[in-house]
Amino acid sequence: VDPFFRLLEAQLQDQRREHEEEVEALKNRVDAMKEELEKQQQAFLQTLQLSPEAQVEFGLQQEITRLTNENLDLKEILEKLEKNEKKLKKQLKIYMKKVQDFEASQATVPTDRRRHERNMQVAVQRKEKDFQGMLEYYKEDEPLLIRNLIT
To answer: How far apart are CA 147 and CA 104, in angstroms?
Structure first.
C-alpha cells in the first residue's frame, strides 16, 4: 500500500509542477499583453495631441508597419512552403525511380508469377474498396477468380 501512495504523491507533484509552469507561462503572456496595450494607449494619446494631418500621417505609418510585418510573415511562410515543395519533389523522384525499377524487375519475372501477383493485387483492392457493378478481368484468370470467389 505504501508504494501505491508514493506513486500517487509523485504523480500529484508532477501535475502540480506542470500546473505551476502553465500558470507562470500565462502570467508572462498577460504581462506581455499589458505592455502592448500600454504602448498602444500611449500611441493613441500621442496621436490625439497631434494635428489632423499628423494624425493621418501617423496612422499611415502604423498601417505601413503592420503591412510590412505581415508581408515578412507571408514571405517566411512562402519560403517554408517552397522548401517543402522541393523536398516533396525529391521524394517523388525517388519513388518514381523505385516504381520504374520495380516495373523493370517485373518484366524479368515469369508470366505465371506475374499473373499470380496481379491476381493477389486485385484481391487486396477488393478488400480495401467497396465495388459496385461489373468486374473486369482477363479470360485466362477466370478459373482463379472463380476459385477466389468461392473460397
So the answer is: 30
- Give 110-119 pLDDT, tens digit per residue: 555 555 555 5
Contacts 24+ apart (CB under 8 A), 115-124: 115/140, 115/141, 116/144, 119/144, 119/145, 119/148, 123/148
Among candidate residues 128, 114, 123, the one with its CA nearest the CA of residue 149: 123
Dihedral sign of CA atoms 65, 69, 70, 71 in order: positive
**Stated pTM of the model:** 0.39
Distance CA 59, CA 134 (A): 68
Of 148, 141, 101, nearest in space to 118 by CA: 141
